[in-house]
């Protein structure tokens, strides 16, 4: 064990890995601070670089982007009232009001500190839970893994906020796309429509980059053409905003202490929700915000610039970052779209996510754990120093950024396979992503369905072979039945919590 830790320490703290992690953090904060761009999109665009970088360097870059974007979304949320990422939507409620009340510096620093606390705590829980859960998962058979796959897709769809039917449809579509190509057992072609280019299936990189990056670029271009410049609406100062006094807007210890309780509430809620497949940072942020308001001594200040509201929302958002990897590392099931992207990166490194990953790749996985921890420190330092600069990034016009992102996406996809067919798949996936966005279908469940699909099919067919085609064999395992029952209980719990959150939201509107 000590040998692996020493090797992992050497990998994680190699100069080039630290440099890539720092570059990733700066890039992530920048992307998160610009409305319309997201950490998922940046990670998707950077996936082809996995082929040309050493595994530790590639993980450092991707982790840095992820960490930076988790906080970066709150910068534009507080400064301009426009969430840079979906997870920062709850931060807008009190963050922008705090800025209008003359407390932008306090709000930004509260978001930064609570984000780093939530993120670090979540990472530590991942480190201490991943290995024990992986050891338990090693005892799973096809029936138990089929139950996990089914439940993961169910949770992904059911926890898609307000879009259960569309979440189910997106997950099913992802599984169907994963089945295109050759049958894994017979080798026969299926769903190729006579096109030899599809005989090898749909590439992981073209699909992910197309769904996340190309579709977002096309949507942003359409918005520019239609002149929907929402920034003009939110960057105009309020008429009744008080004169700004810097001397009253300094972050101090009493302010931090007053928000610490809300930060820990958000951290706990975000870690719990982040560990559930498909729940997502946005749900965690709103749940944390609602819980903090109910337990606060000053609940009436929420929605009017409460720093407790900023702390709870941002801690809940960021606390999902480590927890979302727990099901990926332990069972091979991505906990979110971001975890699916990291799972794809690991697969490209010839590392198969799941219970055997910890055993067969201990050095690189523990190196990843080291990177997760020190990336939070780099994120804290870099964000604190560069806050004045990043708070103005939301003013960058998308027309300057989008062409660069589009070029990188196409170039990286072509370089990953040296095939023009991959570029056509990329563009087709982008068009599909635009269509799904148009009809309000969430993209996360589709990606998770595509990643989980092969394992779901394999475990189902193996379980049926063991049960001699008896479908009741799928529910004869006590462990599988326990998984089904536990998931039903979770769905019932989140249904009740969502009802309370909706009532809370309606009261805030009134």
From TrEMBL:
<feature type="domain" description="DUF112">
    <location>
        <begin position="18"/>
        <end position="448"/>
    </location>
</feature>
<feature type="transmembrane region" description="Helical">
    <location>
        <begin position="325"/>
        <end position="351"/>
    </location>
</feature>
<dbReference type="Pfam" id="PF01970">
    <property type="entry name" value="TctA"/>
</dbReference>
<keyword id="KW-1133">Transmembrane helix</keyword>
<dbReference type="InterPro" id="IPR002823">
    <property type="entry name" value="DUF112_TM"/>
</dbReference>
<feature type="transmembrane region" description="Helical">
    <location>
        <begin position="363"/>
        <end position="382"/>
    </location>
</feature>
<feature type="transmembrane region" description="Helical">
    <location>
        <begin position="12"/>
        <end position="34"/>
    </location>
</feature>
<feature type="transmembrane region" description="Helical">
    <location>
        <begin position="479"/>
        <end position="497"/>
    </location>
</feature>
<feature type="transmembrane region" description="Helical">
    <location>
        <begin position="148"/>
        <end position="180"/>
    </location>
</feature>
<feature type="transmembrane region" description="Helical">
    <location>
        <begin position="200"/>
        <end position="219"/>
    </location>
</feature>
<feature type="transmembrane region" description="Helical">
    <location>
        <begin position="272"/>
        <end position="292"/>
    </location>
</feature>
<feature type="transmembrane region" description="Helical">
    <location>
        <begin position="41"/>
        <end position="66"/>
    </location>
</feature>
<keyword id="KW-0812">Transmembrane</keyword>
<feature type="transmembrane region" description="Helical">
    <location>
        <begin position="124"/>
        <end position="141"/>
    </location>
</feature>
<keyword id="KW-0472">Membrane</keyword>
<protein>
    <recommendedName>
        <fullName>DUF112 domain-containing protein</fullName>
    </recommendedName>
</protein>
């Amino acid at each position: 064990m000590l040998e692996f830790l020493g090797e992992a320490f050497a990998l994680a703290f190699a100069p080039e890995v630290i440099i890539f992690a720092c570059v990733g953090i700066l890039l992530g904060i920048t992307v998160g601070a610009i409305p319309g761009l997201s950490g998922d999109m940046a990670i998707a665009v950077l996936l082809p670089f996995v082929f040309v970088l050493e595994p530790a360097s590639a993980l450092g870059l991707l982790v840095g982007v992820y960490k930076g974007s988790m906080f970066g979304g709150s910068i534009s949320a507080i400064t301009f009232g426009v969430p840079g990422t979906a997870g920062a939507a709850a931060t807008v409620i009190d963050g922008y009001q705090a800025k209008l009340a003359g407390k932008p510096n306090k709000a930004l620093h509260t978001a930064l500190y609570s984000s780093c606390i939530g993120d670090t705590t979540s990472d530590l829980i991942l480190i201490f839970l991943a290995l024990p859960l992986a050891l338990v998962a090693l005892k799973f058979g096809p029936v138990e893994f089929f139950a996990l796959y089914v439940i993961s897709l169910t949770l992904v769809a059911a926890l898609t906020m307000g879009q259960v039917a569309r979440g189910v449809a997106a997950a099913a579509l992802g599984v169907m796309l994963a089945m295109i190509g050759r049958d894994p057992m017979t080798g026969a072609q299926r769903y190729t429509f006579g096109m030899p280019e599809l005989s090898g299936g749909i590439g992981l990189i073209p699909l992910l980059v197309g769904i996340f990056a190309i579709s977002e670029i096309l949507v942003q271009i359409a918005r520019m053409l239609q002149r929907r410049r929402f920034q003009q609406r939110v960057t105009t100062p309020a008429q009744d905003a008080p004169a700004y006094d810097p001397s009253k807007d300094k972050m101090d210890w009493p302010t931090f202490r007053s928000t610490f309780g809300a930060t820990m509430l958000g951290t706990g809620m975000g870690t719990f929700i982040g560990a559930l497949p498909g729940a997502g940072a946005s749900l965690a942020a709103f749940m944390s915000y609602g819980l903090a308001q109910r337990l606060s001594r000053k609940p009436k200040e929420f929605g009017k610039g409460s720093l407790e509201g900023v702390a709870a929302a941002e801690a809940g958002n960021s606390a999902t970052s480590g927890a979302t990897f727990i099901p990926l590392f332990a069972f091979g099931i991505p906990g979110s779209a971001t975890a699916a992207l990291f799972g794809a990166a690991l697969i490209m490194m010839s590392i198969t996510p799941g219970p055997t990953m910890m055993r067969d790749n201990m050095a690189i996985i523990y190196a990843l754990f080291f990177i997760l921890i020190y990336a939070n420190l780099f994120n804290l330092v870099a964000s604190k120093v560069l806050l004045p600069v990043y708070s103005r990034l939301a003013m960058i016009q998308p027309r300057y950024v989008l062409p660069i992102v589009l070029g990188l996406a196409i170039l990286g996809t072509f370089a990953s396979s040296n095939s023009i067919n991959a570029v056509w798949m990329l563009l087709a996936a982008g068009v599909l992503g635009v269509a799904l966005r148009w009809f309000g279908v969430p993209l996360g469940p589709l990606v998770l369905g595509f990643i989980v699909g092969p394992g779901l099919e394999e475990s189902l067919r193996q379980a049926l072979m063991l049960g001699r085609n008896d479908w009741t064999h799928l529910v004869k395992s006590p462990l599988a039945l326990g998984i089904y029952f536990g998931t039903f209980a979770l769905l019932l719990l989140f249904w009740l919590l969502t009802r309370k959150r909706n009532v809370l939201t309606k009261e805030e509107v009134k």
